[in-house]
Amino acid sequence: MHDIFISYSRQDKPWVDTLAAALIAQGYAVWWDAELLPGQNFENAIKHVLDNARCVVTVWSTASVDSLWVREESSYALQRNVLIPVLYQPVTLPMPFGRIHTADLQGWQGDTNDPRFQTLLRGIAQYCPRTTETEENAPEESPADVDPLPDERTSGESVIHRWKWFAAALFTAIGLIFTAAGGYNDLKQVWEEFTSPTLLLDYEPKGNILVGDSIYLTFSASHKGYATLWNQDAKGVVTKILPEKGSSTLHFTPQYNGETIELQATSGNGSDRFILLWTPEGKPDHLGYSQFDNEAAFNAALKKLEVDGLKKQEIIVPVYQTNP
């Protein structure tokens, strides 16, 4: 079992290598994907370590705040209540991570005597108590120089709990105002928008993608329901990707609400368009065909689903024959 899992963007790898080396020098077993062995399935390997690591250090930077992988790993760590965020560059953190105490290591270059690094170590020690031997070898820290982490870190459970109370209080206040003004229907519309399902569809990597390159496509939904995943190639043909066989739709539940799949880029000097369709519980039937000759035929079929609470999310992935 690893003590620390580091979640980061590959663009920050030189700095993360320094951070990992410093933590290893403190006696911790550290994992970051540089440790993947040839032939390993990276997604399965990462999930296994993420499940078992004692804590997860997320490195926030201008690159990582836009990384779907970093957000997913950090969200999972937050659910486990083992997240320790670190600020590498000045950025606005995505919700709800901005509400969590973050160790500020901006400008840190590897000095293990730096009080800010010592603060990080104290945060990690809450999950991974250092051995006597490790503590004796570690540099001494002066209480006057160290800005201690709070005794009780903000856990994923408490964040969710606070958001629920905040939402309840907010809508209670809005309800009183709208009720006094006779605006019940307006309030109902606001509440429906607030609680409406959210679809996630994204891909990695974000650089130049060539024909034959692997695309890692991640999709999910915030609510239970039924989904299908489609692809429109450069010629306009729309084809269902998932599910491939068997059921006509994927059933999203609390146990399964999406996944990451590997695809091959095909549309050279054009684009791959991916479309995620979702309908709520009780509406399992989507489109009757698995392929449409053009976008117009596909959109015409979609109109029949709109009455069933259809939600749609799409992204366009540029694909090139050669590097532009």
Describe the structure.
The protein is 31% helix and 24% strand. It has helices at residues 13-25, 42-52, 68-80, 115-125, 132-137, 156-180, 184-194, 295-303, and strands at 4-7, 30-31, 55-60, 83-87, 103-104, 199-204, 214-221, 225-232, 238-242, 250-252, 258-264, 270-280, 291-292, 311-319. The strands form three sheets. Strands 8, 9, 10, 12, 13 and 14 form a six-stranded antiparallel β-sheet that branches. β3, α3 and β4 (83-87) form a beta-alpha-beta unit. α6 packs antiparallel against α7. It is elongated. The two termini are 43 Å apart. Mean pLDDT is 76; it is low at 35-42, 132-165 and 190-194. Residues 1-125 form the TIR domain. Residues 131-153 are annotated as: Disordered. This is TIR domain-containing protein.
The structural domain count equals 3
- With helices defined by DSSP (H or I, 4 residues minimum), what is the helix count? 8
pLDDT below 50 for ≥5 consecutive residues: which ranges? 35-42, 132-165, 190-194
- Global structural class: alpha/beta
Portion in helices: 25-40%
Task: Give the SSE layout.
Elements (H helix, E strand, L loop, with lengths): L3 E4 L5 H13 L4 E2 L10 H11 L2 E6 L7 H13 L2 E5 L15 E2 L10 H11 L6 H6 L18 H25 L3 H11 L4 E6 L9 E8 L3 E8 L5 E5 L7 E3 L5 E7 L5 E11 L10 E2 L2 H9 L7 E9 L5
Parallel strand pairs: 1-2, 1-3, 3-4, 4-5
Antiparallel strand pairs: 6-7, 7-11, 8-9, 8-10, 8-12, 9-13, 12-14
Helix pairs in contact: 6-7
